[in-house]
Every structure is written in C-alpha cells, then in structure tokens.
Design brief:
Blueprint lengths: L1 H27 L12 H12 L5 H13 L50 E7 L4 E6 L3 E8 L2 E8 L7 E7 L4 E6 L3 E4 L10 E5 L5 E7 L7 E8 L3 E8 H6 L1 E2 L7 E5 L7 E3 L5 E7 L4 E6 L6 E4 L12 E2 L7 E5 L4 E5 L1
Parallel strand pairs: 8-13
Antiparallel strand pairs: 1-2, 2-3, 3-4, 5-6, 6-7, 7-8, 9-10, 10-11, 11-14, 12-13, 15-16, 16-17, 17-18, 19-20
Helix pairs in contact: 1-2, 2-3
Length: 341
C-alpha cells in the first residue's frame, strides 16, 4: 500500500513536470510570458529518474521529451515513459520482461506441457487466496499450478475415461477440492492427497450433457460447498456437498480405476429449465448475491437471479438477445454486466 501511495505521488509530480514543459514550450512560441525557470532535457531526465528510479529507461525518457517539444498540444500518455505504448510495441526491451512499475518481478513461463497432442484446455480458474491456478483439459488432465518459493510447480491428475470430455472446472474453497464436469459425470479431485490412487470421486450418471460448472462463493459455512452446473437441454443444477458425502455416499472403485463412485440419485440435486438451448456459461456473482447463466437461446438468453429460484417456480429475471449470449462478465467497479453474443 505504501509503494502504491509513493508511486501515485511520483506520478502526480511527473505529470506536473510535463505540464510545465508544455507551458514553457508554448512560451517559446510567444503564447505566454516567459520566466527564468526553464526546463531542458537534462533537467527532465534527472527529475524523471529521481521520481521513478531504474523503472524508466533513457531511450523512453528521450522519446517522451521529444514528443512534448515537437507537439505540445498532443502530450503523450504517461505509460509511454515506461515503454508502454498504445498500438505499438517497444522493440528495444526484452519481450520476456515487464516493467517494475506494473509487476513485482519478471513474468514466469511454464515450459513443460501438461496436455498431450490433440488435447486442449477447456477451463482455467485462478484461486487468488491460495496463489494457484487450476486448468482442465478436454481429454481429462486436471492440473494445479502453484506459486511457492518464487517458482511454479504443477501436479496433474488424469481422469481415465472412455468418450466423455471435460467441459469445465472450478475450485471448492471450503472442501478444498477441484470440481470438473464431463458430458456425463461430475469429478471431484482431492488435489492435496499424497496418494497417487483413490484421490478422486465421480458422481454419475447424469442424464443430460453437462457443459459448464461454477462454485457458489458465500461466506460462512466451512464444511460444505455449493456447485452450479448447466447442461445441453437448458437446465441449471444446484448441488450442495459436505465432507460427510465423501464418506457416506461413496462406493467401491471399479477395476483399473483410481476413483470412488457416488450415485447421482443419492444426492438432492434441484434443477430448473431456464433456457431452451445449451447453457454455455454459468457463474455465481458474489457481489450481487445472484447467479447468472447464458445460453444460445434467443428468448431466454441471459438469466440473473437468486439461487433460490432453482428450487421454486417463481419467475426469473431474464432478457433476450437475437442468437443468444455466449459469454458474460461482471465489473464491480462500474456496476455493469457485459454480454457477448
């Protein structure tokens, strides 16, 4: 927080300096009365380096100063002093580095592949409070990338399956499990388990093809998590799981499998048909305390309502878009929802 305050103060001083140079440049054109406080390039260079330190490079300071002098009516944007340009790239800097003003350290690249050939990533979920990222591939590789000791390491879990593809994933913050959905099953992976075997659970069968999944993030209960899912028939499902479910409802693992199976019929899983086509994406927006789902359906394209609507028949808040909605996101700062069709 202190570094952020210091940077804002330095940026304010820098912008005042730029305004003064612009004024002096216009004075030299006879637009204003001159005074003795002239600012040449050497003074600008020294002041800028004093404000920002090694985060600024000589060539960027020089280019910035040249722009001000040559066209004072069109002053450059302040990110340009750090080599960040709108619509162009700084070819003099290394492509693998980011400036210290914006990031704490150099970007780190994961060099090893976590999926095999002809496989694709179907879901990426960031878990900020645990400093890791979860990915799920179409053919069944679940991977956790964790940042510890300033380096990334990953550990993967392969879901052996016949024809079903993974269609989405998320993280269960209270139970500390990775959840993923396939066309016919729900996968729950205990990524913390040191055992290579028997560290996963599968809930099946699911009658319709599951296409998306999201966790309901609410404060409070530490022993359960609620999962939202959407399928190819327009249904949205609500599944609540506790630690007891992993003990009470599991059956023996099948041969040549590292999973324990749970019968979907043993769970109370409310569902409601909200769309007339595929549920493409579903998400719980904690800031609004509402869930949102979208579909390629032109009539019920986007739904935003309380999760209790999944357990009753009351009308839901929805709107229609020609040819449906494929994606959406919520911006808390602007208090808007943006959809893409």
């Amino acid at each position: 927080a202190l570094e952020l305050i210091d940077f804002k103060s330095a940026l304010e001083q820098f912008q005042n300096l730029v305004e003064k140079i612009i004024q002096k440049t216009k004075e030299s054109s006879g637009l204003y009365a001159k005074d003795d406080d002239e600012i040449d390039y050497n003074k600008f260079h020294t002041t800028t380096q004093t404000l920002f330190g090694p985060a600024v490079k000589d060539q960027n300071i020089q280019a910035f100063f040249r722009k001000i002098i040559s066209n004072p009516d069109e002053k450059p944007e302040w990110p340009e002093i750090f080599g960040c340009f709108l619509g162009e790239r700084d070819v003099t800097s290394s492509p693998s580095r980011e400036n210290m003003v914006f990031l704490d350290s150099e970007k780190q690249q994961i060099t090893h592949s976590v999926v095999k050939r002809k496989d694709v990533i179907k879901g990426i979920v960031k878990v900020p409070f645990l400093h890791f990222t979860v990915t799920a591939s179409q053919r069944g590789v679940l991977t956790v990338f964790s940042k510890q000791r300033k380096s990334f390491f990953s550990y993967s879990f392969y879901f052996h399956q016949d024809t079903a593809w993974i269609t989405g994933c998320d993280f269960l913050p209270n139970l500390k499990y990775i959840v993923a959905v396939t066309e016919s099953t729900i996968i729950l992976w205990d990524y913390k388990s040191k055992e290579r075997e028997n560290n996963g659970f599968v809930i099946k069968p699911m009658k319709n093809c599951l296409l998306c999944v999201s966790t309901v993030t609410t404060s409070g209960h530490l022993a359960k998590d609620t999962i939202l899912m959407g399928d190819d028939k327009g249904y949205v499902y609500l599944l609540t799981m506790t630690n007891d479910d992993f003990i009470m409802k599991q059956s023996k693992a099948e041969k040549e499998s590292q999973f324990k199976f749970m019968d979907s019929e043993s769970f109370d899983m409310p569902k409601r048909k909200l769309h007339d086509d595929w549920v493409v994406k579903i998400k719980y927006i904690s800031a609004l305390k509402r869930f949102a789902s979208c579909s390629t359906d032109s009539t019920s394209s986007f739904v935003l309502d309380d999760i209790n609507r999944l357990e009753d028949n009351l009308p839901v808040k929805e709107f229609s878009v020609p040819k449906g909605v494929n994606a959406f996101t919520y911006c808390g700062k602007a208090k808007v929802i943006v959809t893409g069709g």
